[in-house]
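Q: Hi! First time asking for a complex rather than a single chain. Here are the components, and I think there are two in total. Is that enough to go on?
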Amino acid sequence: AQKVTQAQTEISVVEKEDVTLDCVYETRDTTYYLFWYKQPPSGELVFLIRRNSFDEQNEISGRYSWNFQKSTSSFNFTITASQVVDSAVYFCALSVGTGNQFYFGTGTSLTVIP
Amino acid sequence: DVKVTQSSRYLVKRTGEKVFLECVQDMDHENMFWYRQDPGLGLRLIYFSYDVKMKEKGDIPEGYSVSREKKERFSLILESASTNQTSMYLCASSLAGGPVDTQYFGPGTRLTVL
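A: Yes, that's all I need. Here is the structure of the assembled complex.
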């Protein structure tokens, strides 16, 4: 069975602080894909990153970085120097093999206080 | 850019009414999905479709049906709306074939059943 756990329900940080959102996944498949999405107050989920199980390189995109560690089944997301516009709900998701179904975590609500 | 649109952002219906939620994508994607999002539960898959006139049940199909007559359009139908179907409904689409592809989401429809 597949499962994604985002243990942090809500996080508040002060602007310019760094913040890490945790994502732990469970699967017995050796081929899988991990995703992060951002859901701002407007409601639309915005795709941030896709990572396959064979690529453990960390990725950086501007203030965003992702740390993929198969040894701990984690795919954590760090925002550096947070801004108010980063306030949103962030979802981690897993898909396995060539299947179409995504398994979403319950999301982490991030509030950045000015 | 992928564009997924949903017919309504907000909808209020009465118990027992038949409700249609429409989703249209303009990127010629084969796969389309309907999710509902509830606080603390994340996104749960209701139905998905991988081709015209094809559909597959997701995790919570009870009380819902779907229709896909054209490739770009995927409709979610609540045959007899109930108050426990009050929720945010999100539509998504993705390419088919080969490895799992990213799902792109619409803005969501917030449905209230009175």
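A: The interface with chain B takes residues 9, 33, 35, 37, 42-47, 50, 52, 91, 95-102, 104-107 of chain A (CB under 8 Å). Let me know if you'd like any chain examined more closely.
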